[in-house]
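Give me a protein, keeping tokens residue-aligned:
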Amino acid sequence: MGSSAAWAKTTPNILVVGDSISAEYGLPRGTGWVALLEQRLAEQKIQAVVHNASISGDTTSGGRSRLAGLLGFYQPTLVVIELGGNDALRGLPLQSTEDNLRQMTETAQKAGAKVLLVGMQVPPNYGRDYANRFQNTFERVAKSEKTGLVPFLLKGVADAPDPVALFQPDRIHPKAEAHPTLLNNVWPELKKLLN
């Protein structure tokens, strides 16, 4: 086996499958948390390749339908799943969100990848019961499938003293200055899975 093939086997290969928050919606290119992740890996001299396969508007159903092709193409060692927010915005059944997240996790694991689920929360105007059940979906899947979990990607942003200040005018998508916080929410869990 050549040295480049050996390098490919030992170099972490990270695939991010997310929605608009990971796809840098409304942001200058290179300012979103996934781009910042690449910078942090380089700063910490961690040789890893990051592939961002995030699509604005994507749901867990869309991610599930795309995942097998992405796994075959990128052959990741770690898959970060940041989906579910659009399911809630569209009022899709929580059970289908959970089934899709579980299926994606199992598919990635069968392909030899570790999985990091990135949780989302919905605003309280959805009703406390729905909000709690939605949040628990990520925890349940992570626990049953033994994956890493970031409980809430927007921690420190959506629950900041003046949350509107950190969001674009649509009040859904964080501004560029919020993305370092998003990376800091993901980083500890992601780093554990790289070791």
